[in-house]
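Hey, can you fold this one?
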Amino acid sequence: MVEKNSILSTMEPDIFSGQFDQFWSAFLRWLRDMGFFFSEVNLHWTIGQVLLIVVTWLFASWAARMIAPQIEARLREIRGNPGLLRFLAILFRRTRWFMFVGILWLLVLVMLEITWPSRSRILLSAASLATAWLFISVFSRVIRRRTVANIVAVLVWIAAALNIVGLLPNTISLLDSVAFEMQDFRFSLLKLMQIVAILSFLIWLAILIGQFIEGIIRNTEDLTPSLKVLTSKLTKVVLFLVAVFGGLSIVGVDLTAFAFFSGAVGLGLGFGLQKVISNLVSGVILLADKSIKPGDVISVGETFGKIDQLAARYVSVIARDGREYLVPNEDLITNPVLNWSFSSNLVRLDLNFGASYDADPYEVRALARDAAHVHDRTVEDPKPVCHITEFGDSSVNYVLRFWISDPEKGITNVRGDVFLNLWDKFKEADINIPYPHREVILHQADQDGDK
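Sure. Predicted structure:
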């Protein structure tokens, strides 16, 4: 014998069958009220209403296509107000529905004046359903993602349609009857749908509030870039947790029932997601100690570029060639990191070169400083300097040092430009840049000695 609390018995087929019979009876009653169980008296009225609905839809589609170019031309004249333009564009895409709903309600009023109300119920229901869909589809566009917006619109319209036709209470009872029980815990299909709906709304609301707060934090000048990112991420995490646990509490889910399950899952995740958790913790440490921040130019191994984003698991580094490297946060904690702009954006560049022994070293140093100074990315303070490093085998060797304040724009390109400037100035001053060479001396052997 199967116990009362087993999962199979908790489906309660007798209750489910009874709820389904009630729902089916209500649905048949609504069809009968609408005139779909035809008799000789209302058959022609039913066919007439259906034909009016079809003709109205065709006429609204044709009229919308005719006036669409004029409306679109007016919309293109709107400048400087993207919010208004987006809202009007949403309305413009539903021109056909606006005309369809308006004509249907006009037909309903005419039918109510010329005949009995029972002979226009199908028309009235179609107008109510179309109106509900129009308003829901417009206001659902608050959600920017079109796929999510369409899903929300369809689900909300189904609920509104069931309420309009009077089947919502029976539908709720039917969904609630599909359930299983374990001791004091009961979980139904209705409860699942409520959890999904409420959690989806609260999480969406938390995301919107998080983005709004992130915008305020981003515009706060008193906070450092790292502290801005850390505050924004902590705010989003707190809002998400509040939305999840708050949603479960609203629908009446006892959170203690998940204690054992969450403990087992947490233990498994702790072993399986060590790297993920390590990267998450490393990300918090990086934000807290302010070692790197968005906009810094860093070198990690062979990766060189500008930090574009500090994510929860990785740091986005954009190289000069346009490639974007996703460096795990743990690598930035455990490996040496060269931050070119940690405490200052100033970066010193060294250029090594040689000049002929015939050239005046004072003139060479002056020309080298001028070659760096004329570059538009060289800063005025500190000034470029040039020093003699050694007397080489075939040249006097120098080092030219100058500073830039925008390493994110590249370093090699600045070096190349300054080298070209130095080349041009040496050509104008007739200063040679020697290159290493070797002299090979051949001695002819003494013929007498060979003998």
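The chain has four domains: 9-184, 187-272, 278-339, 347-428. Let me know if you want another pass with a different chain boundary.
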